Amino acid sequence: MSLANYIENLLQADWPKSQVDPQDHREPTHGTELQHRERKPDDITYTPLSDLADALYDEDDANRFLKQTKYSWSMTGDQFRLLDLIRSSPALFPKGRYNESAIKEHWETLNAMVEAKRDTGELPDGWLKGVDVEFVLMNEKERIALYRRDPEEFTQRSQRHLASKKA
Does 128 map to a domain? Predict the structure, then answer.
């Protein structure tokens, strides 16, 4: 048996036993850090991960991402940065709700922005007005490096970013 087959068999055997807390709605803070809301252990009901497969998976990348926003523990660091970018745009996240049609329409551009860590200029005018895209798309290490290099600049950019999300 090859190593790949062995690993696949282990995953298939353990998949139904893997348990998660589907109510664990953690919110991203910076990069991959999570802010956990307080819950008592008695309040937690674990669900087999296999039972959440349909809730988490879709072949379409944009649809899968939108599903994962309900289960943020399943997101990668890049997805958190994309989520932060989307939530920073009044056009993509108006009144605290995802503009699903706009996200799907501009999915490729949004992903290109995360990969390039910059504004590609391909979104409609004004969608990211006042958003420090470079700062939003920094990972944790890059933000730490910015802080070490220039704490004042980091503080200003961080405060502007938080203020723009509240507006």
Answer: yes
C-beta of residue 49 within 8 angstroms of C-beta of residue 17: no
How many CA atoms are closer than 13 Å to the CA of 64, on its beta-carbon side? 10
Number of domains in the chain: 1
What gap in Å lies between CA 18 and CA 11, rounded to an integer?
10
Q: Give the distance, in angstroms, between the CA of residue 51 and the centroid of all CA atoms in the same chain.
A: 22
Where residue 130 falls (left for φ over 0; alpha for ψ -120 to 50; beta otherwise) is: left
pLDDT tens by residue, 75-119: 889 999 999 999 999 999 998 899 999 999 999 999 999 998 888
Degrees to nearest 5, angle at CA 110 with 103 and 166: 70
Q: Looking at the domain assignment, is residue 9 inside a domain?
A: no
**CA atoms of 24 and 73, how far apart (whole Å):** 7
CA 48 to chain CA centroid, nearest Å: 22
Reference 132, options 141, 143, 144, 145; nearest CA is: 143
First to last CA, the chain: 58
pTM: 0.71
Parent domain of 23: 18-166
Determine contact, residues 123/148, Cβ cutoff 8 Å: no
Strands 34-35 and 47-48: unpaired
